[in-house]
Amino acid sequence: MSAALKNLIRFHHTLICLITISVCWFSLPSRHLHAQSPDARAVAFAVQQQLVKAIEKAEHSVVAISKIKTRKQQFQSRIPAPFGLDPNQDLNLSHDPQDLNFIPTEFGSGVIIPDPTNQQRVLVLTNFHLTQGGPITGQKKVPEYRLYVHTEDRRGFYATLLAADPRSDLAVLVPAGRVATDASRPLKPVQYGNTESVRKGQFVIALGNPYAIARDGSPSASWGIVSNFHRYPVPIFKNFLNQELSKKETIHHFGTLLQVDTHLDLGTSGGALLDLDGNLIGVTTSLAALEGYEKSAGYAIPIDPDTRRIIDSLANGLEPEYGFLGITPGTLDRSEANRNLAGAVNLTESSYVQTSGVKQHSPAQQAGLRTGDLILSINGKPLRNELDLMREVGKAGAGTEAKLQILRGKNPRELTLTVKLGKWPVADDEGIVQTRYRHPLWRGLRVDYPTARAKYTFSPFTYPPAVVVTHVAPDSPAQQAGLTEGTFIRLVNDQPVQTPDAFYQEAQRASTSPVTLQLLDDRKVVLPNSKQ
Fold first, then answer.
1. With a threshold of 0.90, does the pTM exceed it?
2. What is the per-residue pLDDT for 23?
3. If you compute the radius of gyration of the chain from its CA atoms, what whole number of angstroms results?
Protein backbone atom coordinates (compact mmCIF):
# COMPACT_ATOMS: atom_id res chain seq x y z
CA MET A 1 0.00 0.00 0.00
CA SER A 2 1.44 3.39 -0.98
CA ALA A 3 2.21 6.10 1.56
CA ALA A 4 -0.25 8.43 -0.17
CA LEU A 5 -3.03 5.84 0.11
CA LYS A 6 -2.19 5.23 3.77
CA ASN A 7 -2.41 8.95 4.48
CA LEU A 8 -5.73 9.19 2.61
CA ILE A 9 -7.17 6.29 4.60
CA ARG A 10 -5.90 7.83 7.84
CA PHE A 11 -7.50 11.16 6.90
CA HIS A 12 -10.85 9.52 6.16
CA HIS A 13 -10.74 7.55 9.43
CA THR A 14 -9.94 10.69 11.40
CA LEU A 15 -12.64 12.65 9.59
CA ILE A 16 -15.19 9.92 10.38
CA CYS A 17 -14.11 10.02 14.04
CA LEU A 18 -14.54 13.78 14.11
CA ILE A 19 -18.01 13.52 12.59
CA THR A 20 -18.96 10.72 15.01
CA ILE A 21 -17.74 12.70 18.01
CA SER A 22 -19.58 15.76 16.75
CA VAL A 23 -22.81 13.81 16.25
CA CYS A 24 -22.58 12.26 19.73
CA TRP A 25 -21.77 15.60 21.35
CA PHE A 26 -24.42 17.58 19.58
CA SER A 27 -27.03 14.86 20.26
CA LEU A 28 -26.74 15.33 24.02
CA PRO A 29 -30.16 15.89 25.71
CA SER A 30 -29.83 19.58 26.33
CA ARG A 31 -32.19 22.19 24.92
CA HIS A 32 -29.56 24.89 25.08
CA LEU A 33 -26.86 22.75 23.50
CA HIS A 34 -29.21 21.53 20.77
CA ALA A 35 -30.35 25.04 19.98
CA GLN A 36 -26.78 26.26 19.52
CA SER A 37 -25.30 23.16 17.89
CA PRO A 38 -23.82 23.54 14.41
CA ASP A 39 -24.20 20.76 11.92
CA ALA A 40 -21.70 17.94 12.61
CA ARG A 41 -20.67 17.92 8.96
CA ALA A 42 -19.97 21.64 9.16
CA VAL A 43 -17.69 21.06 12.17
CA ALA A 44 -15.70 18.45 10.26
CA PHE A 45 -15.37 20.72 7.25
CA ALA A 46 -14.30 23.59 9.50
CA VAL A 47 -11.45 21.41 10.77
CA GLN A 48 -10.61 20.48 7.20
CA GLN A 49 -10.58 24.14 6.17
CA GLN A 50 -8.24 24.99 9.04
CA LEU A 51 -5.85 22.26 7.86
CA VAL A 52 -5.94 23.62 4.32
CA LYS A 53 -5.23 27.17 5.53
CA ALA A 54 -2.33 26.03 7.70
CA ILE A 55 -0.76 24.10 4.82
CA GLU A 56 -1.23 26.99 2.39
CA LYS A 57 0.43 29.34 4.86
CA ALA A 58 3.51 27.19 5.48
CA GLU A 59 4.16 25.20 2.31
CA HIS A 60 5.99 28.11 0.66
CA SER A 61 8.56 27.83 3.47
CA VAL A 62 9.25 24.10 3.05
CA VAL A 63 11.79 22.91 0.48
CA ALA A 64 13.05 19.66 -1.01
CA ILE A 65 16.79 18.96 -0.76
CA SER A 66 18.76 16.68 -3.08
CA LYS A 67 22.18 15.36 -2.11
CA ILE A 68 24.26 14.79 -5.24
CA LYS A 69 27.63 13.05 -5.46
CA THR A 70 30.33 15.28 -6.91
CA ARG A 71 32.57 12.48 -8.14
CA LYS A 72 31.93 9.05 -9.64
CA GLN A 73 31.94 6.29 -7.04
CA GLN A 74 30.06 3.13 -6.30
CA PHE A 75 26.56 3.76 -5.02
CA GLN A 76 26.48 3.11 -1.28
CA SER A 77 23.49 5.12 -0.10
CA ARG A 78 22.01 4.26 3.29
CA ILE A 79 18.62 5.35 1.96
CA PRO A 80 16.76 2.92 -0.32
CA ALA A 81 16.43 4.18 -3.89
CA PRO A 82 13.02 5.74 -4.64
CA PHE A 83 10.40 4.33 -6.99
CA GLY A 84 11.80 0.78 -6.76
CA LEU A 85 14.91 1.61 -8.77
CA ASP A 86 17.97 -0.62 -8.61
CA PRO A 87 20.77 1.67 -7.37
CA ASN A 88 23.43 -0.60 -8.88
CA GLN A 89 21.93 -0.48 -12.36
CA ASP A 90 23.23 2.13 -14.80
CA LEU A 91 20.01 3.86 -15.82
CA ASN A 92 21.68 6.80 -17.57
CA LEU A 93 19.52 9.13 -15.53
CA SER A 94 20.21 12.84 -15.48
CA HIS A 95 22.59 14.12 -12.79
CA ASP A 96 21.44 17.70 -13.33
CA PRO A 97 18.96 18.66 -10.59
CA GLN A 98 17.42 21.23 -12.93
CA ASP A 99 16.52 18.49 -15.43
CA LEU A 100 12.93 17.21 -15.26
CA ASN A 101 14.28 13.64 -15.52
CA PHE A 102 16.52 14.07 -12.49
CA ILE A 103 15.80 11.57 -9.70
CA PRO A 104 17.88 11.99 -6.53
CA THR A 105 19.19 8.94 -4.70
CA GLU A 106 19.65 10.83 -1.43
CA PHE A 107 17.07 13.39 -0.46
CA GLY A 108 15.24 15.14 2.32
CA SER A 109 13.47 18.31 3.33
CA GLY A 110 14.25 21.72 4.76
CA VAL A 111 12.54 24.77 6.24
CA ILE A 112 13.25 28.38 5.26
CA ILE A 113 14.10 30.49 8.33
CA PRO A 114 15.14 34.15 8.72
CA ASP A 115 18.84 35.08 8.78
CA PRO A 116 19.56 36.84 12.11
CA THR A 117 22.59 38.62 10.61
CA ASN A 118 20.96 39.88 7.40
CA GLN A 119 17.30 40.84 7.06
CA GLN A 120 17.57 40.67 3.27
CA ARG A 121 18.62 37.01 3.34
CA VAL A 122 17.07 33.73 4.42
CA LEU A 123 18.57 30.41 5.46
CA VAL A 124 17.48 26.77 5.24
CA LEU A 125 17.13 24.66 8.40
CA THR A 126 17.42 20.91 7.97
CA ASN A 127 18.89 17.75 9.55
CA PHE A 128 22.62 17.20 9.96
CA HIS A 129 22.52 13.60 8.71
CA LEU A 130 21.03 14.81 5.42
CA THR A 131 23.80 17.34 4.73
CA GLN A 132 26.88 15.47 5.94
CA GLY A 133 29.66 15.76 3.37
CA GLY A 134 28.14 18.84 1.72
CA PRO A 135 30.01 22.02 0.71
CA ILE A 136 30.97 24.46 3.46
CA THR A 137 30.45 28.19 3.06
CA GLY A 138 33.72 29.97 2.26
CA GLN A 139 35.74 26.81 1.59
CA LYS A 140 37.18 26.07 -1.85
CA LYS A 141 37.74 22.37 -1.18
CA VAL A 142 35.71 20.14 -3.51
CA PRO A 143 33.03 18.50 -1.32
CA GLU A 144 31.89 14.90 -1.50
CA TYR A 145 28.34 16.07 -2.21
CA ARG A 146 26.50 19.06 -3.60
CA LEU A 147 23.24 20.19 -2.04
CA TYR A 148 20.44 21.36 -4.32
CA VAL A 149 17.23 22.94 -3.04
CA HIS A 150 13.84 22.97 -4.81
CA THR A 151 11.27 25.50 -3.61
CA GLU A 152 7.49 25.14 -3.66
CA ASP A 153 7.19 27.54 -6.62
CA ARG A 154 9.51 25.33 -8.74
CA ARG A 155 12.63 27.42 -8.38
CA GLY A 156 15.94 25.85 -7.45
CA PHE A 157 19.38 26.76 -6.14
CA TYR A 158 22.53 25.22 -4.74
CA ALA A 159 23.30 25.73 -1.05
CA THR A 160 26.31 25.51 1.24
CA LEU A 161 26.63 24.65 4.92
CA LEU A 162 26.81 27.64 7.24
CA ALA A 163 27.00 25.42 10.33
CA ALA A 164 26.11 21.84 11.26
CA ASP A 165 25.83 19.98 14.55
CA PRO A 166 25.67 16.17 14.85
CA ARG A 167 24.60 16.35 18.52
CA SER A 168 21.30 18.04 17.70
CA ASP A 169 21.11 16.54 14.18
CA LEU A 170 20.51 20.06 12.87
CA ALA A 171 22.22 22.06 10.13
CA VAL A 172 21.72 25.47 8.50
CA LEU A 173 22.33 26.12 4.79
CA VAL A 174 23.07 29.33 2.92
CA PRO A 175 21.25 29.64 -0.44
CA ALA A 176 23.44 30.59 -3.40
CA GLY A 177 22.63 32.19 -6.73
CA ARG A 178 20.09 34.72 -7.97
CA VAL A 179 17.07 32.91 -6.56
CA ALA A 180 18.26 33.61 -3.04
CA THR A 181 18.64 37.36 -3.70
CA ASP A 182 15.64 37.96 -5.99
CA ALA A 183 13.86 40.85 -4.25
CA SER A 184 10.87 40.56 -6.60
CA ARG A 185 10.19 36.97 -5.45
CA PRO A 186 11.70 36.68 -1.98
CA LEU A 187 11.87 33.32 -0.26
CA LYS A 188 9.38 33.25 2.60
CA PRO A 189 10.63 32.21 6.06
CA VAL A 190 8.43 30.11 8.30
CA GLN A 191 6.80 31.54 11.40
CA TYR A 192 7.70 29.95 14.73
CA GLY A 193 4.94 28.65 16.99
CA ASN A 194 4.61 28.38 20.75
CA THR A 195 5.95 24.92 21.54
CA GLU A 196 5.59 25.38 25.29
CA SER A 197 1.81 25.12 24.90
CA VAL A 198 1.92 21.87 22.88
CA ARG A 199 -0.07 19.07 24.53
CA LYS A 200 -0.72 15.37 23.95
CA GLY A 201 -3.54 14.91 21.49
CA GLN A 202 -2.93 18.23 19.74
CA PHE A 203 -3.41 18.13 15.97
CA VAL A 204 -0.21 18.56 13.96
CA ILE A 205 0.64 18.75 10.26
CA ALA A 206 3.82 17.41 8.65
CA LEU A 207 5.21 18.82 5.39
CA GLY A 208 8.12 17.09 3.68
CA ASN A 209 9.64 15.24 0.75
CA PRO A 210 8.85 11.52 1.26
CA TYR A 211 10.67 9.24 -1.15
CA ALA A 212 11.72 12.29 -3.24
CA ILE A 213 8.22 12.69 -4.68
CA ALA A 214 8.51 16.44 -4.01
CA ARG A 215 11.63 16.87 -6.10
CA ASP A 216 9.71 19.56 -7.99
CA GLY A 217 9.61 21.46 -4.69
CA SER A 218 5.97 20.92 -3.74
CA PRO A 219 5.93 19.35 -0.25
CA SER A 220 3.62 16.48 0.64
CA ALA A 221 1.30 16.93 3.61
CA SER A 222 0.09 14.54 6.29
CA TRP A 223 -1.49 15.08 9.67
CA GLY A 224 -2.07 13.46 13.02
CA ILE A 225 -1.69 14.16 16.72
CA VAL A 226 1.10 14.57 19.25
CA SER A 227 1.43 11.16 20.91
CA ASN A 228 4.09 11.83 23.53
CA PHE A 229 7.07 13.90 24.69
CA HIS A 230 10.70 13.19 25.63
CA ARG A 231 10.95 10.18 23.31
CA TYR A 232 14.14 8.45 22.19
CA PRO A 233 14.93 7.96 18.47
CA VAL A 234 16.53 4.53 19.09
CA PRO A 235 16.65 2.19 22.09
CA ILE A 236 19.06 3.10 24.87
CA PHE A 237 21.22 -0.01 25.22
CA LYS A 238 22.30 -1.21 28.64
CA ASN A 239 25.90 -0.03 28.23
CA PHE A 240 25.09 3.20 26.42
CA LEU A 241 25.67 5.51 29.38
CA ASN A 242 29.21 4.16 29.75
CA GLN A 243 30.00 5.36 26.22
CA GLU A 244 29.87 9.04 27.14
CA LEU A 245 32.07 10.10 24.27
CA SER A 246 30.49 7.94 21.59
CA LYS A 247 30.36 9.62 18.21
CA LYS A 248 26.75 8.51 17.83
CA GLU A 249 25.65 10.23 21.01
CA THR A 250 23.20 13.09 20.53
CA ILE A 251 21.14 15.19 22.88
CA HIS A 252 18.12 13.25 21.59
CA HIS A 253 19.37 9.98 23.11
CA PHE A 254 18.44 11.49 26.47
CA GLY A 255 14.80 11.99 25.45
CA THR A 256 14.00 15.24 23.66
CA LEU A 257 11.80 14.22 20.74
CA LEU A 258 8.13 14.70 20.06
CA GLN A 259 6.39 11.49 19.02
CA VAL A 260 3.58 11.93 16.51
CA ASP A 261 1.26 9.40 14.93
CA THR A 262 1.88 10.98 11.53
CA HIS A 263 3.84 8.40 9.56
CA LEU A 264 7.11 9.99 8.43
CA ASP A 265 8.66 8.17 5.50
CA LEU A 266 12.24 8.40 4.27
CA GLY A 267 12.84 11.87 2.89
CA THR A 268 10.77 13.68 5.48
CA SER A 269 13.90 14.40 7.52
CA GLY A 270 14.27 18.16 7.89
CA GLY A 271 10.62 18.87 7.14
CA ALA A 272 8.17 21.01 9.08
CA LEU A 273 5.89 19.96 11.90
CA LEU A 274 3.16 22.60 12.18
CA ASP A 275 0.35 23.53 14.52
CA LEU A 276 -3.12 24.26 13.15
CA ASP A 277 -2.14 27.89 12.62
CA GLY A 278 0.62 26.84 10.21
CA ASN A 279 3.42 27.79 12.61
CA LEU A 280 6.57 25.70 13.04
CA ILE A 281 6.69 23.65 16.25
CA GLY A 282 9.13 20.93 15.18
CA VAL A 283 11.58 19.64 12.58
CA THR A 284 10.64 16.13 11.46
CA THR A 285 13.21 13.37 11.34
CA SER A 286 13.10 9.88 9.85
CA LEU A 287 16.34 8.90 11.57
CA ALA A 288 14.49 6.19 13.49
CA ALA A 289 13.32 4.64 10.22
CA LEU A 290 16.88 4.77 8.85
CA GLU A 291 18.18 2.87 11.86
CA GLY A 292 15.36 0.33 11.73
CA TYR A 293 13.41 1.20 14.88
CA GLU A 294 9.86 2.35 15.46
CA LYS A 295 9.06 2.63 11.77
CA SER A 296 5.39 3.05 12.57
CA ALA A 297 6.07 6.13 14.69
CA GLY A 298 7.08 9.61 13.64
CA TYR A 299 9.50 11.86 15.49
CA ALA A 300 10.23 15.56 15.46
CA ILE A 301 12.78 17.81 17.14
CA PRO A 302 10.66 20.31 19.11
CA ILE A 303 11.38 23.98 18.40
CA ASP A 304 11.39 24.92 22.08
CA PRO A 305 13.54 27.71 23.60
CA ASP A 306 16.49 25.33 24.00
CA THR A 307 16.34 24.27 20.35
CA ARG A 308 15.93 27.91 19.31
CA ARG A 309 19.22 28.60 21.09
CA ILE A 310 20.87 25.86 19.03
CA ILE A 311 19.31 27.14 15.79
CA ASP A 312 20.42 30.70 16.57
CA SER A 313 24.00 29.49 17.02
CA LEU A 314 23.90 27.61 13.71
CA ALA A 315 22.30 30.57 11.92
CA ASN A 316 25.22 32.69 13.11
CA GLY A 317 27.71 30.14 11.78
CA LEU A 318 28.70 29.03 15.29
CA GLU A 319 29.13 25.68 16.99
CA PRO A 320 26.23 25.12 19.43
CA GLU A 321 27.46 24.46 22.96
CA TYR A 322 25.92 22.08 25.49
CA GLY A 323 26.14 22.13 29.26
CA PHE A 324 28.36 19.84 31.34
CA LEU A 325 28.14 19.25 35.10
CA GLY A 326 31.04 16.92 35.91
CA ILE A 327 29.43 14.21 38.03
CA THR A 328 28.79 10.49 37.82
CA PRO A 329 25.00 10.22 38.09
CA GLY A 330 22.93 7.23 39.10
CA THR A 331 19.24 6.42 39.42
CA LEU A 332 17.72 5.22 42.71
CA ASP A 333 14.22 3.83 43.08
CA ARG A 334 12.02 5.31 45.80
CA SER A 335 12.57 2.57 48.39
CA GLU A 336 16.34 2.70 48.06
CA ALA A 337 16.36 6.50 48.25
CA ASN A 338 14.21 6.38 51.40
CA ARG A 339 16.61 3.86 52.99
CA ASN A 340 19.57 6.12 52.23
CA LEU A 341 17.80 8.98 53.98
CA ALA A 342 16.93 6.75 56.96
CA GLY A 343 13.25 7.54 56.52
CA ALA A 344 13.76 11.15 57.55
CA VAL A 345 11.88 12.32 54.46
CA ASN A 346 8.95 10.57 52.82
CA LEU A 347 9.92 10.55 49.15
CA THR A 348 6.98 10.05 46.81
CA GLU A 349 8.45 9.99 43.30
CA SER A 350 9.17 6.61 41.67
CA SER A 351 12.89 7.32 41.22
CA TYR A 352 15.59 9.91 41.90
CA VAL A 353 18.98 11.01 40.62
CA GLN A 354 21.89 10.43 42.99
CA THR A 355 25.35 11.93 42.72
CA SER A 356 27.63 8.87 42.72
CA GLY A 357 30.79 10.90 42.18
CA VAL A 358 31.93 14.51 41.69
CA LYS A 359 34.95 15.34 39.53
CA GLN A 360 37.55 17.61 41.09
CA HIS A 361 37.62 21.18 39.69
CA SER A 362 34.37 20.50 37.79
CA PRO A 363 31.43 22.93 37.72
CA ALA A 364 29.60 20.57 40.09
CA GLN A 365 32.38 20.66 42.69
CA GLN A 366 32.75 24.43 42.43
CA ALA A 367 29.00 24.77 43.08
CA GLY A 368 29.28 22.63 46.22
CA LEU A 369 27.67 19.40 44.99
CA ARG A 370 28.79 16.32 46.96
CA THR A 371 28.80 12.57 46.48
CA GLY A 372 25.54 11.13 47.82
CA ASP A 373 23.42 14.22 47.14
CA LEU A 374 19.99 13.55 45.66
CA ILE A 375 19.23 15.95 42.80
CA LEU A 376 15.50 16.66 42.76
CA SER A 377 15.27 19.23 39.96
CA ILE A 378 17.22 21.53 37.67
CA ASN A 379 15.85 24.99 36.89
CA GLY A 380 12.54 23.88 38.39
CA LYS A 381 12.21 20.78 36.15
CA PRO A 382 11.80 17.54 38.14
CA LEU A 383 14.32 14.75 37.48
CA ARG A 384 13.45 11.04 37.53
CA ASN A 385 16.69 9.48 36.25
CA GLU A 386 20.16 10.29 34.94
CA LEU A 387 18.86 10.67 31.40
CA ASP A 388 16.62 13.53 32.56
CA LEU A 389 19.60 15.17 34.25
CA MET A 390 21.92 14.82 31.26
CA ARG A 391 19.24 16.12 28.90
CA GLU A 392 18.43 19.21 30.95
CA VAL A 393 22.08 20.02 31.68
CA GLY A 394 22.99 19.62 28.01
CA LYS A 395 20.10 21.75 26.78
CA ALA A 396 20.96 24.55 29.22
CA GLY A 397 24.17 25.36 27.36
CA ALA A 398 27.80 25.94 28.33
CA GLY A 399 28.50 28.96 30.52
CA THR A 400 24.91 29.27 31.71
CA GLU A 401 23.83 29.19 35.35
CA ALA A 402 21.56 26.37 36.48
CA LYS A 403 19.79 25.98 39.82
CA LEU A 404 19.89 22.50 41.36
CA GLN A 405 17.42 21.51 44.09
CA ILE A 406 19.04 18.78 46.20
CA LEU A 407 18.60 16.70 49.36
CA ARG A 408 21.73 16.09 51.47
CA GLY A 409 22.64 13.97 54.48
CA LYS A 410 21.07 11.38 56.76
CA ASN A 411 19.11 14.20 58.33
CA PRO A 412 18.37 15.65 54.93
CA ARG A 413 18.37 19.33 54.20
CA GLU A 414 16.86 20.67 51.02
CA LEU A 415 19.35 23.01 49.38
CA THR A 416 19.47 25.11 46.24
CA LEU A 417 22.85 25.24 44.50
CA THR A 418 23.74 27.53 41.60
CA VAL A 419 26.18 25.98 39.14
CA LYS A 420 27.87 27.59 36.15
CA LEU A 421 27.97 24.81 33.58
CA GLY A 422 30.97 23.70 31.58
CA LYS A 423 30.91 22.28 28.05
CA TRP A 424 29.80 18.82 26.94
CA PRO A 425 32.76 17.17 25.10
CA VAL A 426 32.46 16.98 21.33
CA ALA A 427 33.19 13.42 20.21
CA ASP A 428 32.51 13.80 16.48
CA ASP A 429 35.01 16.60 15.90
CA GLU A 430 34.93 16.13 12.12
CA GLY A 431 31.14 16.37 12.03
CA ILE A 432 31.05 19.86 13.53
CA VAL A 433 30.79 22.59 10.88
CA GLN A 434 31.31 26.21 11.93
CA THR A 435 32.21 29.14 9.72
CA ARG A 436 32.51 31.69 12.53
CA TYR A 437 33.94 31.67 16.06
CA ARG A 438 32.86 33.27 19.31
CA HIS A 439 36.32 34.75 19.87
CA PRO A 440 38.93 35.93 17.35
CA LEU A 441 42.42 34.47 17.25
CA TRP A 442 44.61 35.99 19.95
CA ARG A 443 48.31 36.01 19.02
CA GLY A 444 47.58 33.01 16.80
CA LEU A 445 45.80 31.13 19.55
CA ARG A 446 42.24 29.88 20.06
CA VAL A 447 41.12 28.21 23.29
CA ASP A 448 37.97 26.53 24.60
CA TYR A 449 36.58 24.86 27.71
CA PRO A 450 38.87 22.07 29.03
CA THR A 451 36.24 19.47 28.04
CA ALA A 452 35.50 21.04 24.64
CA ARG A 453 36.84 18.10 22.63
CA ALA A 454 36.81 14.45 23.64
CA LYS A 455 40.19 13.89 21.96
CA TYR A 456 41.84 16.22 24.51
CA THR A 457 40.31 14.63 27.62
CA PHE A 458 42.22 12.33 29.97
CA SER A 459 41.58 8.68 30.70
CA PRO A 460 40.38 8.09 33.35
CA PHE A 461 38.39 11.28 33.02
CA THR A 462 39.49 14.33 35.00
CA TYR A 463 38.39 17.96 34.78
CA PRO A 464 41.48 20.18 34.33
CA PRO A 465 41.38 23.63 35.99
CA ALA A 466 42.40 25.21 32.71
CA VAL A 467 41.41 25.99 29.14
CA VAL A 468 42.54 23.89 26.19
CA VAL A 469 44.20 25.12 22.99
CA THR A 470 42.08 24.11 19.98
CA HIS A 471 43.93 25.96 17.21
CA VAL A 472 47.39 27.44 16.60
CA ALA A 473 47.94 29.57 13.50
CA PRO A 474 51.11 28.91 11.47
CA ASP A 475 54.01 31.35 12.04
CA SER A 476 52.14 33.02 14.90
CA PRO A 477 53.62 33.99 18.29
CA ALA A 478 51.74 31.01 19.77
CA GLN A 479 53.38 28.54 17.39
CA GLN A 480 56.80 30.13 17.80
CA ALA A 481 56.43 29.73 21.56
CA GLY A 482 55.88 26.00 21.07
CA LEU A 483 52.17 25.83 21.85
CA THR A 484 50.20 23.07 20.14
CA GLU A 485 46.60 21.89 19.98
CA GLY A 486 45.62 20.02 23.12
CA THR A 487 47.84 22.11 25.41
CA PHE A 488 46.13 23.15 28.66
CA ILE A 489 46.66 26.70 29.94
CA ARG A 490 46.06 27.21 33.67
CA LEU A 491 47.14 30.81 34.29
CA VAL A 492 47.36 34.02 32.26
CA ASN A 493 49.72 36.49 33.94
CA ASP A 494 49.21 34.53 37.19
CA GLN A 495 45.40 34.76 36.94
CA PRO A 496 43.48 31.43 36.86
CA VAL A 497 41.41 30.77 33.72
CA GLN A 498 38.93 27.90 33.33
CA THR A 499 36.64 29.29 30.63
CA PRO A 500 37.27 30.90 27.23
CA ASP A 501 35.68 34.14 28.42
CA ALA A 502 38.04 34.31 31.40
CA PHE A 503 41.06 33.59 29.18
CA TYR A 504 40.28 36.27 26.60
CA GLN A 505 39.40 38.78 29.28
CA GLU A 506 42.81 38.36 30.94
CA ALA A 507 44.59 38.27 27.58
CA GLN A 508 43.00 41.52 26.44
CA ARG A 509 44.08 43.27 29.63
CA ALA A 510 47.67 42.79 28.55
CA SER A 511 47.03 44.91 25.45
CA THR A 512 50.34 44.94 23.54
CA SER A 513 52.51 43.72 26.42
CA PRO A 514 54.09 40.26 26.53
CA VAL A 515 51.87 37.70 28.28
CA THR A 516 53.01 34.84 30.49
CA LEU A 517 51.01 31.63 30.19
CA GLN A 518 51.38 28.91 32.80
CA LEU A 519 50.50 25.46 31.49
CA LEU A 520 48.85 22.59 33.35
CA ASP A 521 52.25 20.94 33.88
CA ASP A 522 53.50 24.26 35.40
CA ARG A 523 55.73 25.15 32.45
CA LYS A 524 55.67 28.85 31.61
CA VAL A 525 55.48 30.31 28.10
CA VAL A 526 55.85 33.99 27.22
CA LEU A 527 53.88 35.23 24.20
CA PRO A 528 55.02 38.53 22.68
CA ASN A 529 52.64 40.75 20.77
CA SER A 530 52.31 39.62 17.16
CA LYS A 531 53.46 43.08 16.05
CA GLN A 532 56.72 42.86 18.00
1. no
2. 44
3. 26
